[in-house]
Amino acid sequence: ETAGSAGASGAPPYPCFARLRAETGSFAGMAAFASDESRIEIDDKPEQVMGQVASGNYFELLGIKPALGRLMVVEDEKLSPPIVVISDRYWRRRFGGDPAVIGRTISIRDQAFTIVGVTPPEFIGLQPGTPIDITVPITTAGSILADPGAWWLHGIIARLKPEVSADRAQAESNVVSQSFMSDSRHPADLIKKHFHHLTVGP
Predict the structure, then answer these.
(1) What is the pLDDT of residues 132-158, one digit of tens each?
(2) Alpha-carbon span 146 to 70, nearest angstrom
(3) Contact 69, 83 (CB under 8 A)
(4) 192 three-state secondary structure
(5) How many C-beta atoms lie closer than 10 Å to residue 15's C-beta?
(6) How far apart are CA 60 and CA 117, in angstroms?
(7) What distance in Å separates the CA atoms of residue 62 and residue 70, rounded to the nearest whole number?
(8) pLDDT in tens, 150-194
């Protein structure tokens, strides 16, 4: 079973996600993601794409297999070297479906990212109406990762351990979330609004 993410209000701050990942025992894995329009350069030519940052285990957790090359893994969060995964749609539109795209570089905020793989055609991301062009490790987001008051993530996904019920996982997640909100001195109405962010189900 896979747990879904927040809804219109978005997922909690990254430090809360980090605590959920570290302090809950109900899940076999957990990943966070966020998307935004990004300005990139290829061969010194600027263009706009829909970019996504995601935890290194994002594709593995979703069971996505590469159409070409490889997909992002946890080790890629170290950013040495920085990698990028592109969508099938973007690969065909921008590179004409050329398999030699593996190893090419995309410049994002003046940093070079090497294309390591292409996602399958059926995978366009987890946000309806927002097909993802490129995905990079969430660690590229920088200092905002440490901000307990920044509500920038779009979602959290998690896979339940086989023996764990959705109700137990929900209850455990709520305890950790509420503890984080209280420790971070978020207002009570914000706690009430957001602590059900991790919706667990089939």
Answers:
(1) 999 999 999 999 999 988 889 998 999
(2) 29
(3) no
(4) helix
(5) 17
(6) 14
(7) 15
(8) 889 998 999 999 999 888 988 898 888 888 877 776 554 454 444
* pLDDT tens-digit map of 26-82: 999 999 999 999 999 999 999 999 999 999 999 999 999 999 999 999 999 999 999
Cβ partners under 8 Å of residue 36, min gap 6:
50, 51
The b/e string for 131-154 (b: 16+ C-beta within 10 A; e otherwise) is ebbbbbbbebbeeebeebeebebb
Question: Tokens at residue 128, please?
Answer: 């309806």
CA distances, 72 to each of 79, 128, 138 (Å): 11, 22, 11
Contact assessment for residue 7 and residue 150, using Cβ atoms and an 8 Å cutoff: no
For Cα atoms 89, 95, 98, give the angle at the middle one, nearest 5 degrees: 100
Q: Which helix (H) or strand (E) holds 20?
A: helix 14-23
Phi, psi of 147, rounded to the nearest 5 degrees: -85, 110
SS3 144: helix
Grouping H, G, I as helix, E, B as strand and the rest as coil, residue 25 is: coil
